[in-house]
Amino acid sequence: MTSPAPDTETPDTPSTGAAEPGRLQRWLPIVVPILGVVLLVAGWGRDLNGIVVALIAVVLAAVVLAAVHHAEVLAHAVGEPFGSLILAVSVTVIEVSLIITLVTAGGEGSETLARDTVFAAIMITLNGIVGISLLLGAFKHGPVKFNAEGTGGALATVVALATLCLVLPTFTSTQGPVFSPPQLIFVAIASVVLYGMFVAAQTVGYREMFVPVATEGEKRRAADAHEHDSTPSRREALISLALLLVSLVAVVGLAKLESPSIEAGVAAVGFPPSFVGVVIALLVLLPEGIAAVRSARQNKMQTSFNLALGSAMASIGLTIPAMAVASFFIAGPLALGLGSTQIVLLVLTLLVSILTLVPGRATRLQGGVHLVIFAAFIFLSISP
User: Fold this and answer.
1) CATH topology for 24-382?
2) Which of 62, 118, 311, 361 is the most buried (most CB within 10 A)?
3) Helix residue spans in the chain (DSSP H)
4) Per the record, where are the segments of Polar residues compositional bias (predicted)?
5) What are the sequence ranges of the domains in the chain?
6) Which pLDDT does position 161 carry in this prediction?
């Protein structure tokens, strides 16, 4: 008759011990973005020493994690695929702002910075994020399943955007890898139209094609979990939206403060100037990479692919039109055409992505193949 007593007391014991970590986890995503903005204001326009640069790097990483947290809260509040779309567009805003900031500052390789960053974003998302997500997801859950119709449509849009924006200028222009003004205007409009068509299909027309695929057992477990896991309230979602915007502003600004150190570091180690675009893409895609890996570990591979393909698509479909408009106000050409080595890597990536995504089922083998291609991209970026 004494056995029920421990059962009634055991829930109380861990709850008091877990109170402080829970409170810390709640406050950190709120404090970190504000700290990032304060540090941004304090360091803007000043010469920074090595200690301050290191501090900014640490805070930048923390703000990125905070952005991931708030994006996940929003994703939980609005559901898929809207959550992935919010993060993809937010990250692209960072990318465009950072590219324009660095291009207007001039410097070696600034005319190709947009091309290098967008191409790096494609390689990072389609090879790095997809590869790591597949590898971790398949290791934990075995062969992973996803909706081939949704991923196939997204990949088709990425293929069209990449070819129109990054391959065509190499072959259609007599001025090198630079579009003529009418060509640039057409490609910018076509990019916006393609991206808009995909967003309409993803969020309105065929939303069911972009939600995670689940077995009956997983559906029952999700239903049971839903009874104990309430959806964030409207107030919580709005707070997370505001803090996500603050986080993105902080990331853009802090990355700008870090950019001289990045360029100096790239030059100091003897890497080509184009590697700056790779570093920028790695920085701005870190939130989506973390979110995609978390989703893969939860066996939500469709969400991982929504993030990866959505990021690649937004990076081309929004960055190129924004840079096309900016090119009329920025001195110097806007070189978008890829070189021969980059075209080969792009074609290989798109071909392997088709073979990975079309069947609707993948293993860690495909993840390994994507990661090898990603390693080849990084190596050839360092040693072209």
Assistant:
1) A middle domain of Talin 1 (1.20.1420)
2) 311
3) 4-9, 12-17, 19-43, 50-78, 82-104, 113-123, 130-141, 148-162, 168-172, 181-200, 216-228, 234-268, 275-297, 301-317, 319-327, 340-357, 364-382
4) 1-16
5) 24-382
6) 94
